[in-house]
Write a structure and sequence with these properties.
2 domains; 15% strand; 399 residues; binds magnesium ion; NADPH binding; isomerase activity; magnesium; DXP_reductoisomerase_N; binds nicotinamide-adenine-dinucleotide; single chain; DXPR_C
């Protein structure tokens, strides 16, 4: 029997790596359903190659175009659209596993739906845990779904934990976890030059090839901040047990410090197919097409503490985790709005942290709502606040 995989965000960077792994093991895995926002050409190529039963495009126009093109090619893939289309992919009856690889808050509802259905959730979409950690972890616990972290750091930690460990459970014997961070493209850039950095500069990551949003997050180190919050939920740890260490070579993907003095690490190439195939094959191991790591040629491995003056977003995220309640949701929404404005050329690089800090200042921390509709509504409210702050930054820039 092959394992059916649904991919949310199939046209993205994680989506492509997942499809590559599926293709390497045709007898074992099969792509049954896919979703994307509006990339018709990308989706069409996936449908031609993988023949999924269902393809959902969030954008209705794109869905209509895709449906017409599929008809012309006489391909049998059914097309769905909008929020309902994404849910249909997440809940597809032929899907045993769901790769949650939509970028940003748009991933929350389908990821939650997959967890509620008891699918194995391969979690790349860290934003959904940051926004609604309690809700998602509760859904996983209630349905008995397997939750496998795909983010390379969390996957590394998972690999270092006992074989019977399940995400969300307490971690006896663990002193702290050490999340490694490359430091991104601006690790050595003089601070005075940061305000002038362009979107292309920010997306030129030294080690990893990723979508543009997460690439900017890596440049600000908000990515590591979101990962600190993600780790708190996945491994049920308080903020003071999650430490960030800069490791520019991205060979050690994270570490776990045990009470007896041991530090366990997972190492490998910076290639997302390792955590992806790990999650898909778990508890077995399979080849994901990743080149072997040669420590002799990898060169020296460096480790140092992050500079929070250079990376204010990391501190904002750590403070949001400590504040709890809605603070991480506010942080995430403001970050998404600010990163998009930066990618659109509306604000400068250093305005990202300013907008997030100001949004957090303007919003009182409340207990996080227990209902997902309230969480989505709050996310929208915060986006409006952050949007106004962006408008003011633009105004300042033009004068
Ligand atoms: P990407 O931009 O390359 O792809 C994003 C995918 O989401 C695309 O398929 C796009 O069509 C879809 N999408 C975007 N907006 C959508 C919307 N509003 N509705 C429906 N679909 C939408 O991003 P990526 O780099 O593949 O990252 C995906 C997720 O995985 C992110 O949450 C990211 O943080 C996480 N992640 C990525 C990497 C990596 O190496 N790329 C590593 C760790 C974690
Ligand atoms: Mg990561």
């Amino acid at each position: 029997m092959t394992t059916g995989i649904a991919i949310l965000g199939a046209t993205g960077s994680i989506g492509a790596s997942t499809l590559d792994v599926i293709e390497r093991h045709p007898g074992r895995f099969r792509c049954v359903a896919v979703s994307a926002r509006h990339d018709v050409e990308g989706m069409l190529a996936i449908c031609q190659r993988h023949r999924p039963a269902l393809a959902a495009m969030a954008d209705p126009q794109a869905a209509a175009t895709l449906a017409a093109r599929l008809r012309d090619l006489q391909l049998p893939t059914e097309v769905a659209t909008g929020a309902a289309g994404l849910l249909a992919v997440a809940e597809h009856e032929a899907a045993d596993q769901v790769m949650a690889a939509i970028v940003g808050a748009a991933g929350l509802l389908p990821t939650l739906a997959a967890a509620r259905r008891g699918k194995r959730v391969l979690l790349a979409n860290k934003e959904s845990l940051v926004m609604a950690g309690q809700l998602l972890m509760d859904a996983v616990a209630e349905s008995g779904a397997d939750l496998l972290p795909i983010d390379s750091e969390h996957n590394a930690i998972y690999q270092c934990l006992p074989g019977d460990y399940r995400c969300g459970a307490a971690l006896p014997g663990v002193t702290e976890i050490l999340l490694t961070a490359s430091g991104g493209p601006f690790l050595e850039t003089p601070l005075s030059r940061l305000p002038g950095m362009s979107p292309d500069d920010a997306c030129a990551h030294p080690n990893w090839e990723m979508g543009r949003k997460i690439s900017v997050d890596s440049a600000t180190m908000m990515n590591k901040g979101l990962e600190v919050i993600e780790a708190a939920w996945l491994f049920n740890l308080p903020p003071d047990k999650i430490r960030v260490i800069i490791h520019p070579q991205s060979v050690v993907h994270s570490m776990v410090r045990m009470d007896d003095g041991s530090v366990l690490a997972q190492m490998g190439q910076p290639d997302m197919r390792t955590p992806i195939v790990y999650g898909m094959a778990w508890p077995e191991r399979m080849d994901g097409g990743v080149a072997p790591l040669d420590l002799v040629t990898a060169g020296p491995l460096d480790f140092r503490s992050p500079d929070l003056e250079r990376f204010p977003c990391l501190r904002l995220a750590q403070d949001a985790l400590s504040a709890g309640g809605t603070a991480p949701l506010v942080l995430n929404a403001a970050n998404e709005v600010a990163v998009q404005a930066f990618l659109d050329g509306r604000v400068g690089f250093t305005a990202i942290a300013e907008v997030i800090a100001n949004t957090l200042d303007q919003t009182a921390v409340m207990p996080c709502p227990g209902d997902v509709d309230d969480i989505v509504a709050l996310d929208q409210d915060i986006r409006r606040v952050a949007g106004e702050l962006i408008g003011r930054c633009e105004g300042r820039r033009q004068h």
